Amino acid sequence: MPIGDILPEIAVLLTAVVVLLTAAFTPQRTHGLCAGLALAGLAVAGWLVTRQTGADRLTFHGVWALDDASRWGRLMILAATAAVIPLCPRWFATDRRHGELYAVLLFSALGAMGLAAAADLLQVVICVLLSSVTGYTLAAWHRDWAPSVEAGMKYFLVGALANVLLVLGVALLVGLLGDPGFPAMAAALAAPGVGSPLLLTGAALAVVGLAFKLGAVPAHTWMPDVAEGAPAPMAAFLTVVPKIGAAVALARLVSLVPPDALALRPVVAAVSVATMTVGNLGALGQDDVRRLLGWSSVSQSGYALMAVTVVGLTDAALPALMLFLAAYAVANLTAFAVVVHLRGLTDRAAWAGLATERPWTAIAFVVAVLSLVGIPPLAGFFGKLTLFLAALDGAYVWLAVAAVANTVVSLAYYLRVVAPMVFAAPPQAPRATLGRLTAATVAAGLLLTVGLGLAAEAGFAAAEGMTLLPVQGSSR
Amino acid sequence: MSLTLAILVPLLGALALALLRLPETAARWLAVAVSAVPLALLLPVWAGFDTGSGAPAFQAVSEVPWVPSLGVAWRVGVDGISLSLALMSALLFIAAIAWPADVQGRARQYYAWFLFLQGVSLGLFLVLDLLLFYVFFDLSLVGMYFLIGRWGHGDAQAAALKFFVYTLAGSLALLLAILGLVLAHAPLTFDMRTLIAAQPLAGTTLYGGLVLLGFAVGFGIKTPLFPFHTWLPPAHVDAPGPASAILAGVLLKMGTYGLVRLPLSMMAETFARWALVLAIVAVVSILWGSLVAFGQRNMKRRIAYTSVNHMGYAVLGIAVAGALTGTAAAEARQLALTGAVVEMIAHGLITGALFLIAGSFWQRAQDYDLKSYGGLAGIAPRLTAATIVASFASLGLPGLAGFVAEFQIFAGTFAVYPWLAAVGLLGILITAALFLTLVQDLFFGPLPERHRRRFPDLDARETAVLGVLLVLVVGIGVYPRWLLDLVDAGTAAVIAGAP
Known about the structure:
With 476 residues, chain A is mainly alpha-helical. Chain A contains 21 helices and two strands. With 499 residues, chain B is mainly alpha-helical.
């Protein structure tokens, strides 16, 4: 067995076990140590991913892809998880199961990593399940607080249904194509006359199953509840990390389908438009900042699906997906970091005058949401720019137009939060914060949101000619 | 180099104001000093600008790579059109920043946003890269949003939101059009000079038409053209006076300048096919803007609607300039384009001055209603004189800047679309009526009791600022040659550059 090919995952797994044991055998007040352990493990795993530079290949009998998409996806997942960890120690300081949290977090990240590397339908299913089961736990972590439990419950119920649909779709695909492995599926799909309504149904069901992890229509309903009810640091994690894994897995699945063999891309395009529209409409009237960020996260999934739609139609699709996801992850994590830093302050009215009271925190939040809108020269602008370029290049002009219309709508609800922050007077009593660690995370997020935009060239250069096995192989 | 500095110095000044804890007076003086730097940098560029017939179209060019894989670079350079607009903007920003404003206890933020806006506005006129153009186009919205929302009055936040959302819709339409244009050219580049030379959409009908539609909507909202003008009145009325001056004087020009620089220069063939439609929309804007302005009792709303009218003249000139390709009626078309550019400059100075004047009315009486004033000529002679000069210039009185512009536009239009010119002239008539009644309502007739006791005339600072703007208005009107030489160099290149 080529164990070396999954060393990063082994590192995450072992770290999770060590964290679990540490949490079990040390007193609760020292559980902050587990955060340090988890960060160290993530750093090691990240270093190991960057060491996997050899030729692109499928290993473990073709179920595990080692290509650019897999490397980018897993690195982003590790980085996003590492960004969430500094938000946790003070938030969970009095939680009895503080240490265990990091173990569950690592297991969940492991599931997402597996999705990013999956080149086999059964592995997709297993990784969705691993990522989901841990996700339910994280969402309902505050089990004494009704909204948290409700969020977990809703996440679980939607997830149970979506997972069943995913398995159903996988069963149809395997039955019709004869093999769960992506290379064999790609070969079968390339044969003439393979398309059939049943096959399209199977593929569409698989898309719905992965849409659940993305927080995309029709399985998006958990996202706002989780964003509102889950512990705020976990909301940051759950709106970002599973999304990255699922987006890569879905792009890989779509890449198997030749454009004229099966009308899968129009299905994804429809999901994309529905997702961005529903997400934006849901966010419009929100007075709860966390819930608003949850809805915005839904709409951002819709934008990401634009790139998935044109995978295989244009070379620009995959780089666009990765750059957009990176920009989204940074901006969304920054926005949630601000929420955590303000001790979960979530009522829009309670943010009044923040710009006067804590200018830097306010600036970080404003920059983060402007990046989510796509205002230049922030990171999000280049993410959206490449998405539009890819969509136009892939001849999905109407999709780009729909995204533009949605972007305009999204500005309105982001500004509904920004306006009281900047224009209103602050309350008499100053607002409490969660301390230096979260402040540092907010600062790092602010720097990255601006810096990634100014240094966009590095991202473009690195993402050029990105590979996605088994279809878009290396030309090097 | 000096162009780059003209963009960066105000931006750095904004950063310094945001970070340093200066007292109000120091912040003010720092802002005025920094805002004067770009003009000081641009005047030597003007002095060194070669307007000879063999000179290159774009001068003072410099280029630094930014995102080479997309063909994006920091490219700056000017032709006669962009340099004259940049000079006007740089001057108007000094005027707006030096204008005594009610900063509501937040001087640093107020001046920082103004300097930020100055940097991005100059950036828009000075860059030669489409992506940077878009970046500055978008950033100008952010700066104006915060200025209106924080320092405006009335329902300022709603006005700011409407302004931001509406104009962002326009800028995204613009983005799609830019991408559509850029994707038609291989290799991928955002270099304006390359795209002007390549005319990438020549020979396409539907595709080219769609891209042009994107540009028309994007710039039409910004300009604003009928029927996309509805964001303008609330934004103007609720904004603080100096911000209104910048909004009308500089930000609206971004739309018309964009029309010249992008669709007219880069897709002349498609533009010519649709020029008549654009010209008709422009004439509708001229008439609609003047008629609606005439119906307003609120002085700021009235001035705001005259912007729709005046920018209609500018767009008419641009449409005429692009109506035909090749050498057909080239002289008339260049005349119209020169007129359009001079209209942009004249409107910037005149309407900038008018909005600053409206701001001083608000500071004195918190009221924009024309009917609540009267007879001020007796107690505020300087204010009266300034307003009358600006109003007469705005209605196109010969000897003032507006006349030079409108004369050239209509002279050019008569050669290409005679009947449209005839209809458009009605707009000038209505404008004359509305400004005369404005002057009459404000300064003549009985003086209302509440102003009798206390209505101070313009103070020294206000007089100085308005004096500079209005001297230029008169200067352009009496002896326009010094400006026309510069503008003609740019418009000749645009007309000759079309295939």
